Amino acid sequence: MQTNPTESILLRTLKGESTERPPVWFMRQAGRVLPSYLEIKKQYTFWQMMQNPEVAAQVTLLPVEDLGVDAAILFSDILVVPYAMGMGLDFTDAGPTFDEPLAFRENPINGLFDDPTKLDYIYAVIDEINRTKPAHIPLIGFCGAPLTVLLFMLQGLGRKGDFPDAIRFIYENRETTKQLIDALTDMSIEYIKGQIKHGIDVFQLFDTHAGLLPFDVYNELFLPPVRKIAQVVRDAGLPFIFFPKGIGTGIAKLTPEEADFLSVDWQTSLTNARKLVHPEIGLQGNVDPRLLFAPQEEIEKELKKYLRFGAENQNWIFNLGHGFMPGIPFENARFLADWAKNADWKRS
Ligand SMILES: O=C(O)CCc1c2[nH]c(c1CC(=O)O)Cc1[nH]c(c(CC(=O)O)c1CCC(=O)O)Cc1[nH]c(c(CC(=O)O)c1CCC(=O)O)Cc1[nH]c(c(CCC(=O)O)c1CC(=O)O)C2
Predict the structure, then answer these.
(1) Which amino acid residue places its CA nearest to atom 54 of ligand 1?
(2) What average pLDDT does this structure show over 154-181?
(3) 95 CA to middle of ligand 1, Å?
């Protein structure tokens, strides 16, 4: 067993090394539950926070201090890419909204004009994070996968749940959908290359709404661009984590071309996921974030179910099945991180 304490435990696990415990980080770890974040948020809009390198870097690093996680994830949003493609975007109390959603336009392709410089502020944030972060804490970069981002672009309003007009558009306009996927994939790749150039250490692709299409359609239209994106990340020598939320047993159909590590939602137990998923793909997940509304004794009882899996599986990153939800008590988030770092994983 390797025990160099200055080397990142997350990177060691991603490289396939043995570690004394699983590495720990959480989706949505910076926003939503940290009192320190909620305090900063009182002074700025979300756009202002994202666009100010000092503030965005500070927020990115808050959970390292406040929760003790093993990695930082860039404080940004998946919808910055359509914004850079010319779509008017606003973050409102009702969630993100786009002006003139694509599904309702006469010609959805013609109105898109890529302007990669609209992402430059994010590279300034990455530079600032790298200047200020502890050396042993890796930075995770991310963007949304083509399906999830396209659903927002087509529907316009993120809180409509199941994106009904967007799904209908995809079925009724197959050729235009393919053109939109290509445009979105190209822009995402440019953005990812920018993140890599500025020094992210790991990349995660969020396909939060992957489960909203039948797997065959998802496989035909949306997995090829995922493979293309994965290749770009790998060619740069970075590990690639893929989070296709809600695809159920579709996880059995994924290959190492699509993921070095697969982030699993809470619908499938990790033990079952391990049986289904290709053996060369590592796993990440999958504590149900809703559990964190429970008293700590109840949380601990559930967490103990992970001990056996953790003892038997080195290629596993401890995380949630999806992000922290607003309103989860900070003490419970901290309890979760402490538990995962201090449990007796029986690995030595
Ligand atoms: O996060 C919300 O409050 C909801 C609004 C929303 C946003 N993007 C969105 C949604 C839809 C949704 O998540 O349901 C759309 C969005 N953003 C993101 C995802 C991917 C996912 O979480 O599965 C999605 C799709 C999720 C979905 O539709 O369920 C990614 C995202 N947004 C964000 C972050 C950074 C972070 O939380 O640390 C991250 C990802 C990295 C990570 O896991 O940490 C940040 C974000 N996005 C957003 C906000 C709120 C802005 C405001 O105060 O006006 C905030 C900040 C905050 O939570 O206080 C806007």
Answers:
(1) 91
(2) 91
(3) 9
Ligand 1 centroid distance, CA of 80 (Å): 11
CA distance 328 to 79: 24
**pLDDT band per the 50, 70, 90 thresholds, residue 1:** very low
> Quick one: average pLDDT of 292-321?
98
Which positions ≥6 away from 100 have C-beta within 8 Å?
87, 88, 111, 156
**Per-chain mean pLDDT for the chain:** 95
Domain of residue 65: give its range.
9-342
Q: Is residue 45 part of a domain?
A: yes
Please tell me the distance from the alpha carbon of residue 53 to that of residue 34, in angstroms, as a whole number.
Answer: 19
For residues 30 and 56, the answer to whether their CB atoms sit within 8 Å is: no
- How many domains, the chain? 1
- Give the domain CATH number at 227: 3.20.20.210
Strand-pair partners of 282: 261
In a domain? residue 347: no
9 contacts 21 by C-beta, under 8 angstroms = yes
Strands 282-287 and 261-263, how do they pair?
parallel
Rounded Cα gap, residues 348 and 344, in angstroms: 10
Which residue type is seen at 209?
Answer: H
Q: What is the pLDDT of residue 2?
A: 43
- The pTM for the full model equals 0.96
Mutate to test the pocket of ligand 1, among 77, 79, 125, 247 (most ligand atoms within 8 A of CB): 77
Of the CA atoms within 13 Å of residue 118, those in its CB half-sphere come to 17
CA of 318 to the centre of ligand 1 (A): 20
Mutate to test the pocket of ligand 1, among 78, 80, 148, 160 (most ligand atoms within 8 A of CB): 78
| β partners of residue 144 | 206
Q: What is the pLDDT of residue 5?
A: 46
Does the beta carbon of 95 lie inside 6 Å of ligand 1? yes
Which of 17-26, 91-100, 173-182, 271-280 has the least mean pLDDT? 91-100
